[in-house]
Design brief:
The protein is built from two helices and four strands. By secondary structure, it is an alpha+beta fold.
Length: 107
């Protein structure tokens, strides 16, 4: 199963089947660059991603490995725009996770 990529303004999701490892559950990897912000800001994004996957029960049963790379778009470089960046990230993530869950359950 090849690696599939989903791109957003605020993150990239890579996912691949882990059937070859005989796993029956999903695994999550996170990468948040120092360009995103200070450590407490990077940890905020990690918590939000983990919470989104934790609350979306259908992901736990899927045999896929997910890697999410959080990236800060150029338009949110200013410190004043951090809250807008967080809101955009949450909206994009929930939309993509819902779409991805329905697509993977159909497959």
């Amino acid at each position: 199963f090849p690696v599939t990529i989903i791109r957003s303004h605020t993150f990239i999701i890579y996912y691949k089947s882990n059937n070859d490892l005989m796993l029956s559950h999903a695994r999550l990897g996170l990468s948040v660059s120092k360009k995103v912000g200070k450590s407490h800001e990077r940890n905020l994004f990690k918590r939000k991603v983990r919470e989104c996957f934790r609350t979306h029960c259908s992901f736990k049963k899927l045999p896929f490995d997910f890697l999410i790379v959080v990236q800060r778009p150029y338009k949110f470089k200013e410190r004043d725009h951090f809250q807008i960046f967080v809101e955009t990230f949450e909206r994009d993530l929930s939309f993509v996770v819902n779409k991805l869950a329905t697509d993977l359950q159909k497959a």
